[in-house]
Design goal:
This protein has 19 helices and 14 strands. It is of the alpha/beta class. The chain binds zinc ion (ZN).
Length: 538
């Protein structure tokens, strides 16, 4: 029997407002998608309440119906982040997939397969789309991008410039720009350290909000800010500014060179010897963890310990090798093996292709409609000019057509904007998890430290134990590994396990492998490279 679908659409939260399609737009897109893919929708669930209201009545109503339905149903939504707002909602849906109540999930923007990897990705999409959009939220604000394209500085003028309210751009401040120029020149000539430059600026009347000379970090930012070359850098992307530069490229580069030279001798050799300094704080007193050499057992060893500067603390030393060993073990928990990494990356490539195809065909479709509307408008104007229609009718019709055209154009730009938002973060995440595997097997303590800094939070040292939590979405990997372990533990439990519990194992693996040759399947099943906890069969 053909699966029947529930359609679910949800309004954006206040924060998302600018980035996500309106409900109307979602419904239009979904209707077209359903038609194209021959998806039969039996009921629509539309949540229009503001996100300020914590409960989601309609979502809960839908999930109840899912549970009550005799036959498994499918769900159709614009993107997983529309369907599940957080990992709790996501958990409900995944549970319903596990128990066979939901047989299919369809999203025009995300393709889901009921394989272990598919479920894993889905979990990520549920819990993390917010995380992804948070990362992107700042740079997608339409007004800002518009300004950037026009080479206008979006916001308060940086030091040396002033905002011109008429041109909505910035221009050199007659006095401050000269000070900036002078500061750059003197620094580029090697006349100053950051400290003496800060004093010089203070002499010229340039101080921070507290009326004190600027701190080094601020100066450093000024001396490296490409805005003074007339370049706007925003989220790693450069835009040519449509305003006057204050500094020439030569001076800018010279200043940068001096800055580099000045920075070099400050890196002490000692710090390099202690790769984990700065990574942890004391779990007992919250003090900083420092390192030192100490003699013991006839050799010299590196130890880490609490500085105990915050008061009484009973914590003792920890040997560096033991510390590193613990970190390796923790990293293993988020590590993805080569096998899974390859497959997931291949899947992501496939998704990307499909997404591109989908947005291309949608864009084409929209272009066609826009073109038609233009033609209609053209005809209408001609008819009016020829005197074949009356002015009143003309005005009403014209308004209608213009409205349609703007709507279509809006939809088109919505499409472009949302693009492949989630693809790149997902890919980075998989790559990082694979990198964790490599690092966990290496002796590169510096890399270990920077990786843990990147993916670990609340990092403490307590009773010779390293404690930290993985940030999202890395925390999902241990959870998922545990889940797979759970499934495989439960199912062989003689007779106790239900069909539903057994079902995911074998079929999922085969679906994932579906289009590959049998040798590969064999290799995957037998592969010793696959860590035990990732093997559903283990
Ligand atoms: Zn302490």
């Amino acid at each position: 029997m053909k699966t029947k679908y529930f359609l679910y659409a949800r309004k954006s939260t206040e924060n998302e407002e600018r980035q996500v399609m309106s409900i109307d737009a979602q419904l239009v897109e979904l209707a077209e998608y359903a038609k194209r893919e021959e998806i039969e929708i039996v009921e629509k669930f539309i949540e229009s309440k503001s996100a300020k209201n914590p409960g989601r009545e309609i979502f809960n109503k839908m999930m109840t119906k899912v549970q009550e339905s005799k036959n498994p149903v499918g769900l159709l939504a614009w993107h997983p982040d529309r369907l599940a707002r957080n990992s709790i909602d996501g958990g409900q849906i995944i549970y319903s997939i596990d128990t066979g109540k939901i047989s299919s999930l369809r999203f025009p923007t995300f393709w889901f397969e009921p394989t272990p990897q598919g479920l894993f990705m889905l979990q990520v999409a549920f819990g993390q789309s917010k995380y992804y959009s948070d990362n992107l939220s700042e740079n997608v604000k339409r007004g800002i991008r518009q300004k950037l394209r026009q080479g206008k500085w979006p916001g308060l003028a940086p030091f040396g410039y002033i905002n011109n309210l008429k041109t909505k751009n910035i221009e050199p401040d007659p006095v401050k720009s000269k000070i900036v120029k002078k500061a750059f020149e003197e620094f580029a000539q090697g006349k100053h350290t950051l400290k003496s430059l800060s004093e010089r600026l203070s002499f010229w009347g340039v101080v921070n909000k507290a009326g004190k000379p600027m701190v080094k970090a601020t100066l450093q930012r000024i001396l490296t800010n490409p805005i003074y070359l007339g370049i706007i850098v925003r989220n790693g992307e450069s835009y040519e500014g449509n305003f006057e530069p204050i500094i020439s490229r030569t001076i800018f580069e010279a200043a940068r060179k001096v800055l580099k030279q000045r920075a070099r001798p400050r890196k002490s050799k000692k710090r390099h010897n202690f790769p984990f300094v700065g990574l942890l704080t004391c779990g007992e007193c919250g003090g900083a963890i420092t390192a030192q050499w100490a003699k013991g057992n006839g050799g010299l060893y590196r130890y880490y310990r609490c500085t105990k500067k915050l008061g009484k603390c009973s914590q003792r030393y920890l040997l560096e090798d033991l510390l590193a060993e613990q970190i390796k073990q923790r990293l293993q928990k988020v590590a993805l093996c080569e096998n899974w990494t390859k497959k997931m990356l291949a899947k992501i490539d496939e998704w990307e292709k499909e997404k591109i195809q989908f947005s291309q065909s949608s864009a084409q479709n929209l272009n066609l409609k826009i073109e038609k509307t233009k033609q209609k408008l053209d005809k209408l104007v001609n008819a009016f000019l020829d005197g074949t229609i009356e002015k009143e009718i003309y005005l009403v019709k014209k308004d209608e057509l213009i409205k349609t055209k703007t709507e279509l154009q809006q939809r088109k730009s919505d499409f472009k904007r949302k693009g492949n938002n989630w693809i790149e973060p997902l890919r980075n995440w998989i790559n990082t998890a694979y990198y964790a595997k490599k690092i966990a097997l290496s002796k590169d303590f510096m890399e270990m430290k920077s990786l843990v800094e990147k993916i670990g939070t609340n990092r403490r040292l307590m009773d010779k134990k390293i404690l930290f939590e993985f940030i999202k979405p890395f925390n999902l990997i241990p959870e998922f590994k545990a889940k797979i372990g759970e499934i495989s533990e439960r199912s062989p439990a003689a007779g106790g396990a239900s069909e539903a519990l057994n079902r995911p194992k074998e079929s999922q693996r085969l679906v994932w492998q579906g289009r590959q040759d049998s040798n590969l399947q064999h290799e995957l099943l037998e592969s010793p490279a696959l860590p035990l906890e990732l093997r559903p069969y283990a």
